[in-house]
Write a structure and sequence with these properties.
Length: about 180
């Protein structure tokens, strides 16, 4: 087991948002508990309330989709620039889409603490968490903190390389 796996097993790094309805404002309380856990940089966050868990998982999925779209379209732009060196037309839409996805990801997720988390779906990894036996929900959402520095560098590198190559090609065709 690696060092990150060892850290995730300590109860001080695990936060559980329990599905306990004691008032009409329970959903707001659940959200506040999640915010506290995210601010505390817990290694593992278990979300029992299904609505909050689903919304959080969807939010993370949208961010992942934007990231992958930025990288893929940036790579397609660069590839099309090398496959058709005399033509700029196939490259431009990919480059614009990549820059838009990277920008939207940065604007929407840069200051959000959820950007540091991924939804854990691997049953083997989930089985290593000692807290899962004491949960009351049938299918909680489990968030695991991950370092996303390389992810951000990757999508900005792909987007900027695509844009730079596109601008260079446009400059050469207008000469």
């Amino acid at each position: 087991m690696d060092a990150a796996g060892d850290r995730s097993l300590h109860s001080s790094n695990v936060a559980v948002i329990r599905e306990v309805y004691d008032s009409e404002y329970s959903q707001q309380c659940f959200s506040m508990e999640l915010e506290k856990a995210l601010d505390a940089c817990c290694t593992v966050i278990v979300i029992e309330p299904s609505q909050l868990g689903d919304e959080t998982a969807r939010w993370i999925s949208v961010g992942n989709c934007l990231h992958k779209s930025a990288v893929f379209s940036g790579a397609c732009s660069v590839l099309s620039g090398f496959l058709w060196p005399g033509r700029v037309v196939p490259q431009v839409p990919f480059s614009i889409f990549s820059a838009l996805c990277a920008s939207l990801y940065t604007v929407s997720w840069q200051f959000d603490h959820c950007v540091k988390y991924q939804v854990e779906r691997d049953p083997r990894r989930l089985a290593r968490l000692p807290i899962l036996g004491a949960l009351t929900a049938a299918s909680p959402v489990v968030l695991v903190r991950k370092d996303n520095t390389r992810k951000i560098v990757l999508h900005w590198t792909a987007s900027l390389a695509a844009a730079a190559l596109c601008v260079y090609r446009l400059y050469r065709t207008m000469k």
